[in-house]
Amino acid sequence: MKTFRKHIYLIAGLLLLGACKPELHPVTPSKGNADFSKYIAVGNSLTAGYADGGLYLEGQQNSYPSIIAKQMLSVGGGEFKQPLFSADQANGSGYLQLTGFNTDGTPKTATVTSNLAIRGQITVPGFGNVTLYNKYTGGEFNNLGVPGIKLQQITYAPYGNLNGFYERMLGPAAPANTESYLDFVTTGRNFTFFSNWLGNNDALGYATSGGAGDVLTDKAVFEQLYNVLINSLTATGAKGVVATVPDVTAVPYFNTVTVSAVLAGVQKVNPAVQALYINAKTGSGLSDGYAPRAATTSDLIVLTFPTSKIGQIVDSPAGPVPYGLTPYAPIENQYVLDQNEVTLTEDYINSYNTTIKTAAAAKGLAVFDAYAFLNNVKAHGLLMNGISLNSGYISGGIFSLDGVHLTPRGYAIVANEFIKAINATYKSSIPLADITNYRAVKFP
Amino acid sequence: MFKSVFNPAGTNEQYHTANKVAPPFTFYGAWGPKAAKWKVGLGVYTPFGGLTDWGTTWPGKYTAEMLNLKAIFFQPTLSYRLTDRLSIGAGFVYNHSSVDLTRGIPLDNSSGQSGQAEIKGSGKGYGWNAGIYFKASSKLTIGFTHRSEVKTTIKDGDAFFTVPTSIQGNFPSPNQFTASIPLPATNGIGFGFYPTKQWTIALDANLVGWNSFKALSFDYKNNTATLKDTHSPRNYKNTVSLRAGAQYKAKPDLALRFGGGYVTAAAPDGYVTPEVPDASRVYGTLGLGYTLAKHLDIDVSFEYEHLNSRTQTNIETQLSGTFKSNVYIPGISLAYHW
């Protein structure tokens, strides 16, 4: 019996061990000198959580503002509502999905077309067709990101009739909308903190269309509107964080289909081919025209270029010639952001970013320098928690299947960069998000 | 039982290892005619090993989920008494090791779940040992020991990779791997003091040659552009351990024991990994010995080790945060004399 009692102590001791774990005592999160009780997010598709060429529920749930808001909870952050698509219409606008790989390793994608939230289409005279989505009816919300919006459009009252993503957040149905985006974000919201990442589309629209389908927003207009916006957002004493416009050449949309790769593919079939021909801008001025020339590695082919067009016989002033392989049938302007267009775009982006940083400095706002951050990722990659990330298409882990917008993991990384900027400026200690909780590209 | 906690840099989160017990064990036996100058001994024990299980949902899952490493040394030794005061011994070491390691692969399937790698195998290694025992007086003994490095090679271990179907071709699975672990040499000096009949005091110092552990490499049999051989620098440093212990014989059949020690860390800054969140450590022990019957002794003991917390950013993985660990080792032993 005596020995048995001894054993009892031993067994009890072993059981107790389960309870005593080592503990660390990290610092208590603090809000510093900012107030996160009502946070609103102003911006475009990146802010809305757009990914894989569409806006859909999973992307919305992993938007960077929603990640920031979740992390703000421990420092006095309030509820953060988003205009989410409903579960039965979770695929929203539809989006791209990876379905496999071709034998040469290039990816195959398909568009998801089930469970969409599309309610119809209207034709706006002088503008074109606008897809309309089911209205969001869940009351007030904090994520005000509108895919496609440019800074240049924020004071344009009828804009709510031209953008279906904006229209679904407004009360009236198109074409009866008259509330500008500026009024929409600043009127009656009583926010204490904001994030603003507008301006990308003022350059990106031009760039993704190969310089053919859109125009760059005038630098002076950008400056004037940016200051109007920041003055409005800070008018009632709210603090905030703003982000710069990324370098267009930092995204895989312009770096995946390269001149050398396409040329190598052609030469495999036809070794005599010396060069690809493009229709390129003749100088880096806004008014410079276009002329055919041989492509160089400084010319950026867009991700959506159908490479199968190369070499197909097309009619030209010189008779039938192979597409893309002679100056008589160069690759069309919309598929290439040529060197001069790159230079022009860069010049505008640099100007926009000077405006953004100057405005932020004047108001003491935090700045996430997305331009510097993404260029650094492009140059050096990023290693975090054993995950190797870079700006490569699909394999890089940061960019989604459209080559411009981010994966949930990419958005979490960006959210952490915003948080670092906020913490540095406002002496707060919002905890960082765990990026391993957010996925990269889904493989079938 | 090894219990660790991790606080990722810039967060307020804490992640704990699961409660899992890795029982170390030792068996010693000595045989020989009573009057003879020689004796043979056999030691079977687990000098290295550990079980660390962080689970599959912690922020370091792509660096390590679970490591279960066991090394069992079989050590036959022959000793010879040269004079009444001086004995020497030498022997052979055979090591059987097994390793089971899992970690996440950051590739997500269509349901958004990430992949996993599991590496499993066993191997062997050889070494030797030698010792000198000197009885300076009836109140003082001195001993020197050396155990050589035991280079253990795991050949044709199994590697399994769970990844999305469309990229399985990049991760041939099942696959085989070869890896080598240099289990370090140990040099020790120990003193025994016998001030009175009831007291025994022991001091010992060890120098463990961890600087042989330069890197952990896995050589896969089937490589692809994605699945390359890995080479993780470890750059461990030699460690020094200092220990002291005392025994008080309260009654002829009851001994009370206590002790403590300090060990320096082997992993340099920048090379601390979650599988082995190494740090300098202090520990204390308590023990009790009781004679149950004429030939049979029972000993129970308890050891508590406290590893100092370390705030680290691993150079290879950039996993950044603070580790802290405690180790609890309850012990029970039976000794039979014949």
UniProtKB/TrEMBL annotation, chain A:
GO molecular-function term, one example from the UniProt record: hydrolase activity, acting on ester bonds
Source domain of life: Bacteria
InterPro entries named among the record's database cross-references: GDSL, SGNH_hydro_sf
Protein name per its UniProtKB record: G-D-S-L family lipolytic protein
